[in-house]
Amino acid sequence: xxxxxxLSVIALVLSWAAYSLFCSPLSAFRGPPxxxxxxxxxxxxxxxxxxxxxxxxxxxxxxTAVRIGPNTISISDPSLIKTIYATKNAWQKSPMYRPNDVxxxxxxxxxxxxxxxxxxxxxxxxxxxxFWSMSKVLDIEPYIDETLKFLVSKLDQKxxxxxxxxxxxxxxxxxxxxxxxxxxxxRHYGFIEQEQDVDNLIVDSTNGLRYFAPISQIPWxxxxxxxxxxxxxxxxxxxTGVMYAFGVVASYQQDLKTSAKPAGSVDHYLDKYISLRxxxxxxxxxxxxxxxxxxxxxxxxxxxxxxxxxxxxxYLAKNPKNYNKLVAELDxxxxxxxxxxxxxxxxxxxDAVIREAIRYCPGIAMVLERVVPTTGLQLPDGRIxxxxxxxxxxxxxxxxxxxxFGSDADVFDADRWLRRSGxxxxxxxxxxxxMTNVSEFAFGAGSRGCIGKQxxxxxxxxxxxxxxxxxxxxSNWVVDPATGEYSSNVRSPTGIASDPALASYxxxxxxQLGQHLSKVNPPVDLVYSSPFYRCLQTLAPFTxxxxxxxxxxxxxxxxxxxxxxIGEFYGxxxxxxxSPASLDVxxxxxxxxHATPDGPHIVPSMKGESIPQLHDRLAYCMDRIIxxxxxxxxxxxxLLICSHAAAMIAIGRALTGRMPEDEGEQDFKCFTCSFSRxxxxxxxxxxxxxxxxxxxxxxxxxxxxxxxGWRDRGVAGGWDCKVNxxxxxxxxxxxxxxxxxxxxxxxxxxxxxxxxxNTKNAKTVEVTSxxxxxxSSGVGMKERxxxxxxxKL
Length: 793
Prior knowledge:
Layout: H1 2-23, H2 40-47, H3 51-62, E1 65-69, E2 72-75, H4 81-84, E3 102-104, E4 107-109, H5 118-125, H6 134-137, H7 141-160, E5 165-166, H8 168-185, H9 191-194, H10 201-215, H11 237-258, H12 269-279, H13 287-301, H14 303-318, H15 320-333, H16 341-344, H17 348-360, E6 368-371, E7 377-378, E8 384-385, E9 390-393, H18 395-398, H19 402-405, H20 425-439, H21 453-470, E10 471-475, E11 478-479, E12 486-487, H22 504-517, E13 526-529, H23 533-553, E14 560-562, H24 583-587, E15 593-595, H25 611-630, E16 638-642, H26 645-656, E17 675-680, H27 686-694, E18 719-726, E19 738-741, E20 743-746, E21 764-768, E22 779-783
Parallel strand pairs: 2-9, 13-14, 13-16, 14-15, 16-21
Antiparallel strand pairs: 1-2, 3-4, 5-22, 6-9, 7-8, 10-22, 11-12, 17-18, 17-21, 19-20
Helix pairs in contact: 2-10, 7-8, 7-21, 8-13, 8-14, 11-13, 14-17, 14-21, 22-23, 25-26
């Protein structure tokens, strides 16, 4: 009997599978294997992340209408956005939104975001819709300014003044959540003040999204998980937000009973909603209704807005061309800070950058499902999607449509939002409007679209304009102390995490340094550089200019010798440090590069080195470099060395022979793009030459640096420092001073040195540093000269 039952079940399953795959009205729509049988396929794909990328692949393979579930069709044709998400007679949201319900006791409550009841939604949203127009949103701009000022003061205090690296993704989240609370309740959550995720609100919200995304693809599972009345399994961020809102509403109304709100103060959203009690008759404005309205702010205000902000910062770090154009526009605008909407609204490139970030990385990149009404849906190709089918469009798919955004739709480029060469005004306007209509779908569409779109736009534009007027940004790297793995969110030009390019401000400094180097006397004959990208990029303005000059004068070629021995200092660690890129890779970015003749003088150990070992390494390397120049009677009279902060200080000590007892002594100045000049005291004796030649570094024992006896004498006869860390040729002078203190540390008093300016016509070694110091993680921040850009915050 049991086997008969088993066979019956198998037959039933096979029959259902055959019907679903071959006889169902949706069988005409192709899709990934098994997707027509179970929603598990799309749920698993969603749980893995980057579902928008998966959907793009499916649409590329299966067409504009893809069956992604037994009763679900994904559409990629942007012309159907207006049909599916119509403002009038809106299609009902599918059950995918139900996991966003809140279970209070045994009662399941929907909210304005996820309700499937369009009539209830329209009635509840009507009284507050006017508060979300841009003209009304601007009323609460002072609350955004207040939070922006607080953020900038923290960034200055914690990162800029200390020369430390900032994890911008974290701080953008702090800002987005705090500004949401401030304009909603008139108080901050406390993220910026406490410099942490208060009460794990952000973590809980993130966990909620990670739960909602895959479970929304199989929404009935939520009944057995988070909405299980016996034992709940899953996060409860929505319930946390609801209870928080109830608490704030109760305490605020109690405060209003005991003390009136100050005259002239700006109403926040809770004030606006409470005021409806006097004017609204269609909806009962009790505490439950207040909380339902407030949840619109709480649910979307922090996560999706911070996602847009992070996208802008991330993709600007990856795209120097867009970054530099934005900075140039902001510099020209001379904005009052915090940036005001009236001042930033006309800025076309700021607008282009943010539009491109929202297009390229929409906040919600999932199929926004609707239920096909009784009339059915006829596709442009004539196929019919029957009534009752879940159908929708993923903004992450339509935003990469090459028919709308061009053949480079998969590339981030803010320039696509500008008028092209040869494009008349009418053509540009048509293309711009077409792109806008599709990219705005990132906020949804129709009567169920995001009501807070204008507020999110205001916050993002103000934040980006303020931060990029105030600071320069550069990608930096992270080291996992457990594994020693170096990583970076932004790929460096060489593909090595610890080898980032310069920030826009650093490029400007490098250009000013290049102009200065072209005027030094005696002129530079030969250039040596650390093999890291930022050093070579710092040299590029000078070497490119020299190459052009020499070509015109038929005066030979510029040679930049890449020497590992003057490379970066990483300190000691249990794990291997990264090696720089090969000369072949570097030559794809910079011309004029050559290897050290007969191989590198010395290669730093991948296991790192102590500070004394660093000094010995630089002394040995400089000794070899100088002796190679001495060996050529017609050789160079002036060498230019480009290296890093720690290496520069060690070079100064090696050349002069002066090693202080305190390694952290501030004896040699080291700022971004600073210039030091050393002149030889006397010619080298034969004995010293022999000693230097016999003490040769052995690659087989890379961590053993020969002792050439440089202390108290200096290398190759000894040198005097004639110019110590000069920055007078830089627009903003001395910045980001460094000295040894175990880790890199900011020099609080950059003017605590006395320069010695002397330019005798003798053999010299000129030393300069790259325009951005190395760092440890996140985004390197550098405060810009705001006195020429509208004043300080």
